[in-house]
Amino acid sequence: MAAPRIKLDKKEAKKGDIVEVKALVAHVMESGQRKNAKGEIIPRKILNKFTCTVAGKEVFSADFEPAIAANPYIQFKFRATESGPVVLTWVDDDGSKIVGEDKITVS
Amino acid sequence: MTLMINRRQALAVGAGAVVLAGGFSVPAFAKNDSAELIEKFTGGKKPADGKIKLDLPEIAENGNTVPMTVSVESPMTEQSYVQEVLIVTDENPRAGVATFHFTPQSGVAEANVRIRLAQTQNVVAIAKMNDGSLFTTSKQVKVTIGGCGG
Fold first, then answer.
1. pTM here?
2. CATH code for A5-106?
3. ipTM attached to this prediction
């Protein structure tokens, strides 16, 4: 699986600045509604949970349903308080995880 | 026709309004589980209008991927912040779209994702603040090509 693409609008921030995160991950997000050529339902397989931690603290998370488009894109913001890794985690229906990381330097 | 408009308005302003309009928390004519999801999220409380904004295209040519931004006015401090935002649709086979969980460290209560819409319908967003107050908004999106396959 291709690594997720993550972009922070700034790498260095002053304490209290708002940092915008954009992330894109390759995933089929199979809805569980579609049928194959034989008329059988294709089983659901989506990323159902997204979490972002900054310097070890959770700042934002989301629960996804099948109504999230394939190759899910997410954009959100956080307030810079301390330097550290920005870790983005997506959890698949099968329990596997896709993890991407960037970092923020706060002065 | 009058009934139709009532139903749409009722769904648009959330389960609370349904209680007012019909005396039932789950309307019998609901096509999917949106009323149930809203009821579960709000605990039966009626959300107020305002503070929350949904940004969606008026017409989506392709329902497979419709950009959606939800934002809520809030200082996002430890004393006052947005806890959760629920997004549901009223005509998708399954109503749920996403639930966003914010923290005071979010700084701004705003998220953008791309969603699937099976047909022309309303998208409803409800925000829950840390003090338990609820705010809602909805927006209709006209979909040219549906996005749930099949």
1. 0.85
2. 2.60.40.10
3. 0.94
